[in-house]
TrEMBL record:
Membrane topology, from the record: Multi-pass membrane protein
Domain O-antigen ligase-related: 289-447
Pfam families tied to this protein: Wzy_C (PF04932)
GO CC aspect terms: membrane
InterPro entries: O-antigen_ligase-rel_domated, WaaL-like
Domain of life: Bacteria
Main localization category: membrane
Keywords associated with the record: Membrane, Transmembrane, Transmembrane helix
Name assigned to this protein: O-antigen ligase-related domain-containing protein
Length: 518
């Protein structure tokens, strides 16, 4: 199965991947990342579209630039996306055409997502008045603008070329497979190395190279890399990501690519699923193996909120199984994969039962099960901590209902140092985090924006075009999975997870433009 269609894009991707790995393990100095950046910029200047496919395949492998000793965490992707955006913007702008208030009104009227996003941006800027740390607030605004650039590029590119949407999904899957493979190597490290060696290697060597000194120090002292049950210490696989919460979100988005490619290879959607699988066995087998790999890594992250939120896409698939809106084979693929997911869950139990970090405790077989059943235990330490944080967040919202504590300044809601935002301080709820930061109005607009993304995906399911139906169905299902998980975490705000979100929402927006309404 060919995932890269352009050999130059493929070559640069693997050169960058190998370079990042060599930097991460210490064979190359961090300064080499500037050479990688230069190559990416040059490629972006030659072809914005090809650079965009390279960009989304490389999302997990963009690393921090060691600009100075005190400023070594500025990520490569921020520069690359600006270059691609400028290249795209120059080719589209018409200097002779003036921008009038009437045109702006018409644009926002026809693009509700952009309008709501603009309102959120304005409120976020106004919330500077309440921000304790203006620099952190400013960085968060710039971050969201960079993300908006990625969204705009994808929307524009896919609205003029439906095949390019498929190309982007394929390229994204390349990066996801690489993430999964590194995750397996990480698990092997947990099975063969002692804890001190593993922890130091990952925090002080690999994460230092990938994310800079600040995150390296944070990760060494406090992280979400392990689960604890009695005397057992188990790795929560996080691969090349900073934590075990953002990785499964990223991989869930990659399932959209797998589902789409799997279903689109079935020529006749009116056939039964098993009949179609037998007929297209050779074409579907590689995608099935990729699904097994990705699903296993999602489970091995041991993120309980992800496990529980899986109910959302399952219910979604069952609901549409007997509806006439989409061919029955489409929800059948989703439901069947959910059953397989549960079987993989059982299989991974044997893996997690193995002793890790050279420990000799005798209760390894119960650790994974204990974590599973702790989901609904309100007396479990992690769950109690979440409840306490939710209470404190609600108190902060009542005290700061209009502008919150300032964009990017969530730790203030818990009376913490704003620097802890870098360590992942949040309300353990995406929506509460946003409300606490920018106030009730801004937070509700953010929730509405999330709904508009979902609504747009659902609209594709009503299209007469099977390509749109397939993509719309699977994206809607995976979006529900992530939205429900976000009730227990704010990991979607991680830049790698959010870039994946921008990719698929951008594709959805592109496909729903009037030029493709059929």
């Amino acid at each position: 199965m060919k995932l890269f269609e352009n050999r130059y894009t493929q070559t640069i991707f693997f050169i960058n991947l190998i370079t990042v790995i060599l930097i991460a393990v210490g064979f190359l100095p961090r300064e080499i990342s500037f050479i990688s950046l230069a190559i990416l910029i040059i490629y972006a200047l030659t072809s914005a579209k090809e650079a965009l496919t390279l960009f989304f395949s490389s999302v997990p492998f963009f690393i921090a630039l060691p600009i100075t000793n005190l400023f070594d965490n500025f990520n490569t992707w921020r520069i690359v996306i600006i270059v691609i955006f400028i290249k795209w913007f120059i080719t589209r702008i018409n200097l002779k055409e003036s921008i009038t208030l009437s045109k702006v009104k018409t644009y926002f009227k026809n693009n509700r997502i952009e309008f709501v996003s603009f309102l959120i941006l304005i409120i976020s800027i106004i919330s500077f008045a309440k921000a304790f740390d203006l620099i952190v607030a400013g960085k968060r605004i710039i971050y969201f603008i960079n993300l908006a650039m990625a969204y705009a590029l994808v929307k524009s590119s896919t609205s003029s070329d439906i095949n390019f949407a498929i190309k982007l999904m394929k390229s994204f899957l390349v990066g996801a497979v690489a993430v999964a493979m590194i995750g397996l190597l990480q698990l092997m490290g947990a099975l063969t190395l002692d804890f001190s060696t593993f922890h130091y290697l990952w925090a002080k060597q690999i994460d230092l190279a990938l994310f800079g000194q600040n995150w390296s120090d944070i990760a060494y002292q406090a992280n979400t890399w392990y689960s604890y049950s009695g005397n057992n210490l188990k790795l929560r696989v996080f691969s090349i990501f900073p934590d075990s919460h953002s990785m499964p979100i990223y991989l869930i988005f990659s399932l959209i690519s797998i589902y789409y490619l799997f279903t689109s290879k079935i020529a006749d959607l009116s056939n039964r699923l098993l009949t179609s699988i037998k007929k297209h066995d050779k074409e579907l087998k590689p995608l099935f193996l990729l699904f097994l790999l990705i699903a296993a890594l999602i489970i091995l992250s041991q993120t309980r909120g992800i496990w529980l939120a899986l109910l959302a896409p399952i219910i979604f698939g069952i609901y549409y199984k007997n509806k006439l809106l989409v061919p029955k084979i489409i929800p059948s693929v989703l439901i069947s994969s959910a059953i397989i997911f549960l079987l993989i869950f059982i299989a991974t139990y044997s893996i997690t039962s193995l002793p890790q970090f050279k420990t000799s405790s005798s209760n390894h077989t119960t650790a994974f099960i204990s974590r599973l059943f702790s989901i609904g235990d309100l007396n479990e330490t992690s769950n109690m901590g979440r409840i306490a944080i939710w209470r404190s967040t609600f108190i902060s919202i009542t005290k700061n209902p209009f502008l919150g504590v300032g964009i990017g300044n969530y730790p203030v809601a818990l009376n913490q140092n704003v620097a802890l935002a870098k360590a992942g301080s949040s309300a353990h709820n995406l929506y509460l985090t946003m409300i606490a930061e920018i106030g009730m109005l801004g937070g509700l607009l953010f929730i509405w924006l999330c709904f508009l993304f979902y609504k747009q995906a659902k609209e594709l399911m009503s299209s007469q075009n099977d390509t749109f139906k397939i993509f719309g169905f699977y994206f809607s299902a995976m979006l529900l999975w992530i939205y429900f998980y976000s009730l227990t975490d704010a990991a979607l705000l991680d830049e790698r997870a959010f870039l994946a979100f921008m990719l698929f929402t951008g594709i959805t927006a592109g496909l729903t433009k009037k030029t493709y309404a059929k």
